[in-house]
Amino acid sequence: MSEPTSIGVGGYVLSKLFALLLIIVFAVILVAIVVMAMTQPKSTREWITALISTVVASICGGAFIVQYFDLHAWGEVWQGSVAIAGIHFVCGLPAWVFVRGWFAYADQNKGSTLTDMIKEIREAFGR
User: Fold this and answer.
1) pTM above threshold 0.85
2) pLDDT tens digit sequence for 30-51
3) 3-state secondary structure the chain
């Protein structure tokens, strides 16, 4: 028979993990709303691509930053959880900008590929 203390601690830890998950989901939703309100896409295809890219970059990019800088301890307190949610929020924004830039470039230069775009950016920066 397991001890009541270990079960209580396990429940407490699970409740904290669930709260952290809710904060991350809330941050991802806010990212999508803010960036979509700032720049509205011209087509449904562009909107779906930008939204998926933003959400994936927000989740994965935020997780990478938390892991790389060893910010796990922040999740133990409410303020730290909010800060981690802010990190996830900020990590989603570059993806939206990149996708919007790609679609703008593709509209201007019909038939160009991603490789052409990268070459032009490198030439513009002198590399």
Assistant:
1) no
2) 776 776 677 777 788 888 888 8
3) CCCHHHHHHHHHHHHHHHHHHHHHHHHHHHHHHHHHHHCCCCCHHHHHHHHHHHHHHHHHHHHHHHHHCCCHHHHHCHHHHHHHHHHHHHHHHHHHHHHHHHHHHHHHCCCCCHHHHHHHHHHHCCC
